[in-house]
Amino acid sequence: MKISKKQSVKKLNFNTLKFSGIILFVCLLLTQVNVFSQTKKGEKTCIECHKNTVKKDILHGPTATDCTVCHVSNGAKHPLENVTGFKFLEEGANLCYSCHEETQAEFKKKYIHKPVKKGKCTECHDVHSSNNKNFILEQSPALCFTCHEDFEKAEETAISIHKPSFDGKSCMICHTPHASNQKRLLVENSKQLCLNCHNKTITENDREIANIGKQLDESSHIHKALKKRCTSCHNAHFSNKNKQLLKETYPLGNYAKGLEDNYTLCFNCHDTDLLNLKNTTTATEFRDGDRNLHFLHLNKDKGRTCTNCHDVHSANNTKLIAKTRKFGRWSMPLKFSENENGGTCTGCHKALTYKR
Ligand code: HEC
Ligand code: HEC
Ligand code: HEC
Ligand code: HEC
Ligand code: HEC
Ligand code: HEC
Ligand code: HEC
Ligand code: HEC
Ligand code: HEC
Ligand code: HEC
Ligand code: HEC
């Protein structure tokens, strides 16, 4: 699996800071307070009064050097009650960009995370010191949950959750926090991202999850719904509607009542006539004369679900007709063949043929 490369700040152009690349630790700093010696004799240094700014393990370069590279005196004596003594050299992100020139260039991508666009770097970064690498306030996913609360709630309440969205580096496996040329701040092409992991069989709690990548590679027919992305049917994070991260209703067993509402997933893109019309010569090709065989198989209290016959991802038969269907422990062969103007199947029944 590919994970976005951490892009480090490269050669920063500092005239005032000579130790680019070095992160000083507090203990080290305290033995070198001479870097804060601009104050007149007898006057306290900034950090003597503002211990909090240097309290954490990793110091931001300029904080370790000179507070006034960012906080510029506005002339007022400091500290005075209710009097502001400083202004920022620059406001918002421009303050950061004044040194992190390459970062600014990097963030100029097609899609920019809203807080980054608004220059709210300090919503995620501590500018002074931090216990986390890159001065982030918290690690992902906790950092992301501070604004994307619904994700945190979902872990408890959703019908299905996608493990990588909540484990380990979670959000950062698939997203960049700043900007991307891919929609939704993805680290790479949406479909490829899924296939980075789903190019092998995954075993989860003794359950085997099929190798979708291999299946696509070995199929002559790919469902057009997944030409561009998997997320036309799956949610990448969690689903409040269905198991298997499906965005809409779809019955996952072999049987279901033949109601549109049970198949919202498919009928988002396909016409419901194939389910509802008992007789038709236009709504579907799966018919014997004008007898709609979709209707025949589906439209009952115990109707046969689509995946009894179709493989929703890809297949080697036309019309995504599956090679086999799981029936409990049995992988039942469908033995579908196309005939002139129709087809034949064995499996649930002896060879039965339809002709349009
Ligand atoms: C006065 C110059 C200066 C300003 C202003 C500044 N930084 Fe930095 N920053 C540095 C230096 C120097 C480093 C250490 C670079 C290195 O290790 O290569 C650094 C490192 C970092 C790092 C650690 C990752 C890295 O590239 O090593 C982050 C994150 C960071 N700064 C964020 C910010 C943010 C956010 C702002 C604005 C609120 C900001 N900086 C403003 C000079 C500055
Ligand atoms: C004698 C103690 C003392 C010293 C020395 C001191 N400060 Fe402060 N500073 C305070 C107090 C008190 C406040 C107001 C309460 C607060 O916000 O923490 C304050 C507030 C601030 C603020 C926020 C309000 C404002 O005025 O903009 C900044 C920024 C600041 N100090 C920066 C600095 C810098 C930079 C230095 C060193 C050049 C410095 N301080 C030196 C005590 C001090
Ligand atoms: C890289 C730029 C930068 C440097 C260097 C820097 N600060 Fe700040 N400081 C900021 C920014 C930006 C904020 C506003 C933080 C926010 O919005 O959360 C701030 C806020 C503050 C505040 C008010 C709020 C708070 O966090 O307590 C104080 C006080 C302060 N700084 C003191 C200092 C002192 C003392 C130093 C040197 C030890 C220092 N700063 C070095 C950028 C800097
Ligand atoms: C939504 C949260 C968030 C916001 C907002 C944000 N950052 Fe970051 N930033 C992160 C995280 C998380 C990382 C760590 C990335 C990693 O580990 O791959 C990071 C890393 C960095 C780094 C070091 C690595 C790199 O990607 O170059 C710099 C520099 C940086 N941020 C600067 C900024 C600046 C400047 C802003 C404001 C324009 C900003 N960030 C806004 C979350 C954020
Ligand atoms: C400071 C608040 C804040 C934090 C922290 C935050 N986000 Fe966001 N995020 C937003 C806002 C605001 C939007 C825009 C929402 C909208 O337009 O409806 C957004 C949108 C997004 C989007 C959709 C972008 C798009 O193009 O539609 C993604 C993906 C995202 N955030 C991921 C993350 C990740 C990953 C993290 C943690 C590293 C994170 N966010 C942390 C505020 C935040
Ligand atoms: C397995 C990859 C993956 C992981 C892990 C992941 N996302 Fe996403 N995320 C996506 C994809 C793909 C989309 C685009 C969905 C689409 O095409 O509609 C997306 C979209 C989003 C959006 C836009 C709105 C939406 O819901 O579609 C937000 C916000 C977001 N992600 C936040 C997060 C947060 C926060 C985390 C961590 C808790 C996270 N993501 C983890 C792949 C991922
Ligand atoms: C970092 C690896 C990784 C990435 C990237 C990834 N997955 Fe997964 N996926 C897993 C793992 C591990 C499981 C098994 C654990 C689970 O069910 O969440 C899984 C399970 C699933 C399941 C079955 C869920 C169930 O309950 O049966 C679906 C569907 C799925 N992923 C779709 C996607 C889609 C769509 C994408 C792209 C947006 C994607 N995955 C990206 C690792 C990944
Ligand atoms: C047309 C809708 C649709 C699209 C698009 C789609 N899926 Fe699925 N996916 C499903 C359905 C429906 C199931 C449940 C299948 C079943 O019960 O046989 C499923 C099941 C899965 C499973 C679980 C398999 C198992 O063995 O439990 C994974 C993993 C998965 N899909 C990954 C993907 C990936 C990766 C993509 C993109 C390459 C993708 N899906 C695109 C509808 C879709
Ligand atoms: C995001 C839209 C979308 C969703 C959701 C969707 N499909 Fe499709 N499906 C398509 C498109 C587009 C085609 C191609 C139609 C064409 O070429 O005329 C297609 C074709 C098919 C075909 C015929 C394949 C062929 O070779 O002509 C079958 C069978 C099929 N879909 C079944 C399903 C089933 C079952 C579901 C629900 C699990 C579903 N589809 C959900 C978009 C979708
Ligand atoms: C009993 C097996 C079976 C079931 C169950 C089934 N189909 Fe089909 N379906 C077929 C066959 C066979 C064809 C191919 C007809 C032809 O072209 O000869 C087909 C064709 C299609 C097509 C291509 C357009 C058309 O109608 O000819 C779509 C779309 C489709 N099915 C969707 C679905 C959906 C959605 C479901 C579930 C709601 C479903 N099918 C359930 C056997 C089935
Ligand atoms: C899940 C089991 C199942 C599968 C798979 C299945 N069928 Fe059927 N099929 C049935 C049942 C049950 C009936 C009888 C329905 C009734 O009469 O109520 C039937 C009836 C038929 C009939 C009508 C026979 C008649 O004249 O009454 C034809 C034709 C047919 N199936 C063709 C197919 C084709 C072609 C496929 C493969 C794409 C297929 N079937 C797959 C269960 C299945």
From TrEMBL:
It comes from the Bacteria. Residues 60-104, 113-152, 162-201, 223-272 form the Doubled CXXCH motif domain. InterPro entries: Multihaem_cyt_sf, Multiheme_Cytochr_ET, Paired_CXXCH_1. Pfam families: Paired_CXXCH_1 (PF09699). Gene3D superfamilies: 1.10.287.3080, 1.10.720.180, Cytochrome C3. Keywords: Signal. GO terms for molecular function: oxidoreductase activity. SUPFAM superfamilies: Multiheme cytochromes. PANTHER family: DISSIMILATORY SULFITE REDUCTASE SIRA, SURFACE LOCALIZED DECAHEME CYTOCHROME C LIPOPROTEIN. This is Doubled CXXCH motif domain-containing protein. It comes from Lutibacter profundi.
